User: Fold Class I ribonucleotide reductase maintenance protein YfaE from Pseudoalteromonas obscura.
Amino acid sequence: MEERPQLKISIEDHDEPLNFAAQSPSLLCTLEKNNIEVPYQCREGYCGACRAKLLEGQVAYNQEPLAFVRDGEVLLCCSKPLTNIVIKLT
Assistant:
């Protein structure tokens, strides 16, 4: 079986991209494991506190968020990257 390459999460104003582990439940969990603080409350897409700008790439939601998400934004608590991504933490 061919292994898929790890997807990269680049954060504007951070030097090194992060690897997204396939077993990670969300972008928020990956950021936390790398000691990057992100505001959050619900962890399920209800509140929108973990909103970030998606500058490049594509994500998929674990479940459809109830919080309003504008074009060019992503909720970190309930999404995973489909491609390498670049985000800006707000």
